[in-house]
Specification:
heterodimer, A: 114 residues, mainly beta, six-stranded mixed β-sheet, four-stranded antiparallel β-sheet, 12 strands, 51% strand, B: 112 residues, seven-stranded mixed β-sheet, 0% helix
Chain lengths: 114, 112
């Protein structure tokens, strides 16, 4: 079945460092790909998405490019802030199932220190 | 981003009791979902709901679970007879289109 694999956390960075969180997926169809963020004590917020190969999703300085050849959707940010500390979830929904459900990775905790 | 409301934020119940979790619909949202996250584990899909019927459900969503949205009101998840392993954070998600889902803050359920 469809699955998403994320890098293990926590990822610990100093403020203004460059961030990469790796995400790869397995899907037999043509999925849409998402990054969600969960701040402490809150629910999941949609951060960005991409619906087809080579699309780049971006929001709040974060970006991710849908790479079909490597089945990846890595999250990047050029300069992280303390306020970016959260858990980041990569997810996919498969068009074959009519976008009925999201399949999530395990989440990667990001800790940014001043 | 649309703000999705869930009630209650926390629920403590005794094993075997029934619980009902609620999600307030946003006016143009037609697609509704429930997910759960057991502490320290992945977010897992439970069920999707459209046009007053279940469109897909996971293996987790057995006969102890049910969903409804009577007369366009709150979208609810009922667990008939709770078990210890039902303790989790339950998230409602909804959207105007199938492709994008917006999540609520969750209900933390603790079964004792």
């Amino acid at each position: 079945g469809d699955s998403v694999t994320q890098m293990e956390g926590p990822v610990t960075l100093s403020e203004e460092a460059f961030l990469t969180i790796n995400c790869t997926y397995t899907a037999t169809g043509y999925p849409s790909l998402f990054w969600y963020v969960q701040y402490p004590g809150e629910g999941l917020q949609l951060l960005l998405k991409a619906t087809k190969a080579d699309d780049k999703g971006s929001n709040k300085g974060f970006e991710a490019t849908y790479r079909k050849e490597t089945t990846s959707f890595h999250l990047e940010k050029g300069s992280v802030q303390v306020s970016d500390s959260a858990v980041y979830f990569c997810a996919l929904s498969d068009k074959r199932t009519g976008f009925q459900k999201l399949v999530f990775g395990t989440g990667t905790r990001l800790l940014v220190s001043p | 981003e649309p703000e999705v409301t869930q009630t209650p934020s926390h629920q403590v119940t005794q094993m075997g009791q029934e619980v009902i979790l609620r999600c307030v619909p946003i006016s143009n949202h037609l697609y509704f979902y429930w997910y759960r996250q057991i502490l320290g584990q992945k977010v897992e899909f439970l069920v999707s709901f459209y046009n007053n019927e279940i469109s897909e459900k996971s293996e987790i969503f057995d006969d102890q679970f049910s969903v409804e949205r009577p007369d366009g009101s709150n979208f609810t998840l009922k667990i008939r007879s709770t078990k210890l392993e039902d303790s989790a954070m339950y998230f409602c998600a909804q959207g105007a289109a199938r492709e994008t889902q917006y999540f609520g803050p969750g209900t933390r359920l603790l079964v004792l």
